[in-house]
Amino acid sequence: MTNNIHDRFQDEVRTYLPADQVDQFLEACRMPLKKSITINNSKISSKDFISITKKWWWTLTPTTIIKDNNTFYIDRDNTDTALGRTFLHEAGYMYIQEVAAASSAPLLEVKDGDTVLDMASSPWWKASQLANMLLSLQTPWLVVANDVNPKRLRQLTHNLNRIWVYNTAVTRYNGFSFGKNMPNFFDHILLDAPCSGEWTAYKSDFALKHRKIEEINKIAGTQFQLLVSAIKATKAGGSIIYSTCTINPYENEYIISKAKEFFKDDIEIEALQTLNTEQWLKLDDTTFDTSKCVRLRPHIQKTWWFFICKIRKVNPTQATYTQPHKLSPKNQFTLTKSKKLHSEANARIKKSFGFELDPEKHLLVATKEKVYLTSPTFNNIQEHLHCEKVGIPILKIDRLFGFRPTHYLGNILWHLATKNVFELNDEQAQIYSESKNLPLEGLAPPGDESVKDYLLTRRGTWFSRTKLVKWEWKNKFSK
Fold it and tell me: How much is the pTM?
């Protein structure tokens, strides 16, 4: 919570907010945000999640500002266990996401056959939302999650694994490169643009105490270049969502205005009136109807300040580079695909868990150390992009012992298993999520004694993988 808002910021806000809203806005900037979560519907329905958490006196309130979404405000009577340490979070049933941040991805109307780029993907929330949307379709189409920063990529990769969205590919490119080297390629692009981070005023004074218009102008130049790249990389008929977590128009309306001036009739700004029909900034010098955009406001919606604009690409853009070109040096994630790989991996999975993969929904690719499960639609991009990671690692390759299942195999495929699956109660699940082992306690496994790998469920849905060692469930949580 911040109490020190710089005079320069206050003076600037007064230039584009209605006079009767300024004091309300500044007061809202000093208030803490209400906690909110997004339920991972690929693992559990919102109805079942709410039913489970009632016994802990969790109250989940749906948000009214997001259309057809699974994001809820959350109140808890007992907060002794941090929300991020509950087994529902650790096992990927939910993730902590601010309501405003959850509002942009659902506005991309994906359909069967679409390939989507999340151009500035870290920390990962929106990539997970998009992947879940595509997993609900007949074929699990692919999301390319991109970020240029290696540290942020590690966080992105970890969380995509935890949420188990296997129809993803992670890349590390400068976003400017996509428009030049992959023109008219993606069906949809989400650009949650890097910004000045004014919303962080909720966490500390820093953003508003040290805010300089020179820095904002520099960031705005980057945002415009990224948006131009996104538009060029989108197919004709496709859509682009541009969003930021800032209030100032220099990073929002003026960026869209410049893009409209640059592309002219090749793009259209689509109205997003389902979220917000009220135009509340005093702006005169724009090249489009700014009321078509969405602005979420801390003093009205009780969220971050958040800006969203949806752009429809009408005509294809002319490619300026036609020769094959590597966007970056080839990395160490070299992929191999073979019928032998599929056959041997399927045999191992069938022996342990009694099922085989569906080639229409599942594609296996491998490095020297791991086998990854991804969507068959990875074939559409493999010649165009070098990937940091593809899909989710479901098997480790051991030269002595062959394939060894990972935690993520069960995370994705548990519902197909016909053997070696055991049910935990909630108390056992919480103990296990704290990285502790569990004694068998009457759960002695029948069947093939040579099989040591088992899947654990909780309330009829996936929880974790485990290994039987000396009559104890060895903790393999997230391993």
Answer: 0.86
